Amino acid sequence: MNAWRAKVPLGDGEDLVSFCRRMAIVSGSPTLGGFLTDIGTTMLQVVHGTDDAVRIAAEFGQADVDRLRAATVMRVLGDSAHARGYRFNGHPVAQGHVERSVMRFCPLCLAEDQARWPNLHEAAPFIRGEWQLKWMRACPVHAVALVADGKWPAIGQDFGSLAENVVPLPPSGMETYLRHRATAKPTSGSEWLEGLHLNSIADFCESVGLIVKMEHEVAADKVKVRKLSIYSLSPAERHAAGDMGWQILSQGPEMLKHLVERFTAMACARGGIMKPGGILGPLNFYLSMRPNDKALQGIRDMIRTVIAASTPINPSTQIFGVKVDASSMTSLHVMAKATGMHYKRLGKLLILGGAISHGERVFRVDERTNALVREIAETMSLKQAGVYINASRVQMVLLVRSGILQASAVGGDGRNAERSFAKRDLDEFLARLTKDQKMIKGGVGTMAQSGLATIPFAARKARCSAVDIVRLIFEGRICIATDQDDYGYMSVYVSPADIRGILYGSRTGLSLHEVAKQRGWGENFVTFLVNESFLAFEVVENPITRLKQRMVKPESLREFDEKYILIDEFIGQFRRHHVDVRKEISRLGVKPVRDSGIGSRIYERSNGAGWAAIKIRALLDYEASRAQHN
Ligand SMILES: [Zn+2]
Questions:
Q1: Which residues form the TniQ domain (predicted)?
Q2: What confidence tens digit (pLDDT) does each residue in 569-595 have?
Q3: Which residue from 121, 288, 475, 506 puts its CA 20 to 30 A from 247's CA?
Q4: Domain assignment present for 385
Q5: Domain for residue 405, yes or no?
Q6: Helix (H/G/I), strand (E/B), else coil: 49
Q7: What distance in angstroms lies between residue 144's CA and the mean position of ligand 1's atoms?
């Protein structure tokens, strides 16, 4: 055995596997396994880095056993799954943080090893133990990225060609700190992280760094923070995230608190129901996945306090396994869910009641707010009811006067007459209003294109009252559509054309207004004719509006024409001023039906003699005027 005792210097930071590999090469052993058997250990012992294997290898290689042990990643085979993992220089390291399938190394370090010990040839380059820790991504000596290549553990590998394509990568602040911790050198500040395990710090830095890096995108709502994960990052991105996170965490817990506060504020601005994962994404995941890590307890408590105090977290929500008791903050969404009210409607009511200001989505619950919400949940004033069903004051008054909306009497002292709309009644009103609807997809634009209008606007267009339209809807005589972007009364759209058809479609007569328009008469004159019974009319009650209206049938107008003649016709024939005409007619002994006023325009046709005389007189007059001109 002594004959081929290997003479290999133990490298600085070299691990057990590398040391054994180099000794095997120098000894001329064809396999690593064969060499290990010869020196009294096994491949499994060396790969696991057991104390026995370290001792045997150090003894055989005449190396410092403590140095070798400190650089070797050692397997810990505990009884429970939780206890299993690795140790590096006494520090626990999780299984996922140790690379055990490929070699990771710095090509420049290996090239230097070869230059230092040229006579060792392939046995010159050695593998540093810390390179197999996944959060070490850069060589601290050369500031280049570690390369992952070749099988681990390997023997007789030629590393020479790998020095060609190196990628510059300065070690991150996090890496420097972890290296200091791992090698038990004095740390670079951040005492508050001393209690955390090395691999906890790596994930912590990377999680914090990732959300800091994406802060602008999260604020702009371009990225959902809960969808971020450090596990979907490339090694270079994780390296950058670790560096960024370290810049925050190395400044102490206050900086982390500021960060958490910024993210809770962003979540509040976005609105919606809040959950810790939706606020802090990967940071929440990191903290939730290590429930047994007592060192994180203080951080978890701090985050729970910040979230509970500044966001409307649902009281039943658990943050890191601890229930948040009655939160003092709430949001419209949370409260709307609790009261079964539309959040827009609730928001308007709370603004009206002065509990919140415009645009405020998250607010502190005090006694006043609670009282207001309780009140709204039971009865509402006219103003509140108007907001609740989304109808203007004018519309509310119309609906109340018509009896469609009834104020449920409370107290009966009359003093509080305004505060008397029951939420139940208002809900029922809206339910009746929107019972038979045909869905129209699209917003207000599509409604207008389809010739639909809101109830108040349709009332103006169809010349009726909004109340008439509501009654038609209740009777199921017209269809409605609802605007999905709005709510309540103003979201109901109806067709003014349909309403006009129902209200006025069946009648045959003309209104007085229409008679005046058709004949070119003044409306006063038509009213006179009707009032004085010159023109026959009938009173028609509109079946919908219940309004009484005087209507003139076409045959009544014909009868009037047969019986009477107006002075306007004489003027046409005499071609004189109406005063002269009137004098002429009077001279012929024909009298109007009335001596003065509007009645002086009307003559009876049945006065045949007078009529003939006028005709003759007119003819003569005409002849005379022609003669004069000639
Ligand atoms: Zn290097």
A1: 8-146
A2: 767 666 667 777 777 777 777 788 887
A3: 288
A4: no
A5: no
A6: coil
A7: 7
